[in-house]
Amino acid sequence: MQIKISNLSYTYLAKTPNEVEALHNVSLDIPEGKITSIIGHTGSGKSTLIQTLNGLLLPTSGEVRVGEFVVTNKKKKNKRIKELRKSLAIVFQFPEYQLFEETVEKDVAFGLKNYGYKEVEAIKLAHKALEEVGIDKSFYKRSPFELSGGEKRRVAIAGIIALNPDILVLDEPTAGLDPKGSKIILNLINKFNKEGKTIILVTHDMNIVLNYSDFVIVMNDGKVAFEGTPSDLFSGDISTYSIDVPELFKFVKLLESKGIKLDISKIRSIDDLISQLKEKR
Ligand SMILES: Nc1ncnc2c1ncn2[C@@H]1O[C@H](COP(=O)(O)OP(=O)(O)OP(=O)(O)O)[C@@H](O)[C@H]1O
Ligand SMILES: [Mg+2]
User: Fold this and answer.
1) Which ranges of 100-259 would DSSP assign to H, the alpha helix?
2) Long-range contacts of 13-17 (CB under 8 A, 24+ apart)
3) What is the pLDDT of residues 211-261, one digit of tens each?
4) What is the number of other CB atoms lying within 10 angstroms of the CB of residue 189?
């Protein structure tokens, strides 16, 4: 499903003395079947932007099209929003805080029941989703509160993946996790993408942008400051975005400046760098 955002603006507390224009005339195409990262300084509008994608926030003006669905400020046009939320599902930052059922399996089944699945079918699909995120059967009947941070995060992701969305949006999916926990989540994201899902992730981690994303969008004060590939972003002037260049990218640039010709656009990990260096020998 194609995502097309046209002239989207969003104002919080509109027409009050405290109004904040969080998005200003944003137009974007987000590619289907790819991993797109959304980055930018705190308060730049990233979370606001993703919440307009499935109508959790309705645009103040402009529109979002997701496949055949349309999100606008005209109530009548947004009739199929519940359906849209199943196709484009959002995993919020710290989703584990939203776990509340008495067992892991019931928590994952909760969303499915909301979409009309009967208990037995919902539990069956919940088990399938838990298996997909690598949560062992021995956890199914346990309380979600007994799990580690990374396990809780995976259970929360299972609750979303169980709905089988075409598009999976994750707001800072690795925030607060240790490197091992982060790696498990990122591998899962990669797996879902390989299975054909479009992935959109909000992150502050430039290594994730370089290693995992096909495209990157930089938000700055509610506007799109850059859209393109990670290598184009990090090769250009990023001084106004308050972001860092990943160490690997700096190193590759250094090698280039020493006369070692590399295809920088294809280097996303140390393994990519090693294989290009091997080819040169
Ligand atoms: N519920 C709200 N009420 C009023 N203003 C809000 C609300 N939520 C966000 N804002 C304001 O809207 C702007 C954009 O916020 P948003 O949360 O989209 O930024 P963000 O890029 O996700 O930031 P962060 O990196 O800190 O998560 C900020 O100025 C913020 O203060
Ligand atoms: Mg945010």
Assistant:
1) 104-114, 119-132, 149-161, 179-194, 206-212, 230-235, 247-257
2) 14/60
3) 999 999 999 999 999 999 999 999 898 888 888 899 999 999 999 999 998
4) 22
Largest CA distance in the chain: 66
C-alpha distance from residue 214 to each of 168, 174, 230 (Å):
15, 18, 7
Q: Which fold has domain 3-96+165-242?
A: Rossmann fold (3.40.50)
Bridge-based pairing state of the strands 20-30 and 3-12: antiparallel
Domain spans in the chain, listed from the N-terminal domain onward: 3-96+165-242, 246-281
Report residue 13 CA to chain centroid gap.
Answer: 26
The CA distance from 131 to 96, in Å, is 18
Binding-site residues, ligand 1, Cβ < 6 A:
12-13, 20, 22, 40, 42-48
Return d(Cα 266, Cα 276) in angstroms, integer. 9
For residue 215, give the H/E element and its range.
Answer: strand 215-220
214 alpha carbon – ligand 2 mean position (Å): 21
Residue owning the nearest CA to atom 27 of ligand 1: 42
Per-residue pLDDT tens digits for 75-112 = 777 778 999 999 999 999 988 888 989 999 999 999 99
Q: CA neighbours within 13 Å on the CB side: how many for 54?
A: 20
**Cα dihedral sign, 65-71-72-77:** positive
Atom of ligand 1 nearest to the CA of 202: 22
The pTM of this model reads 0.94
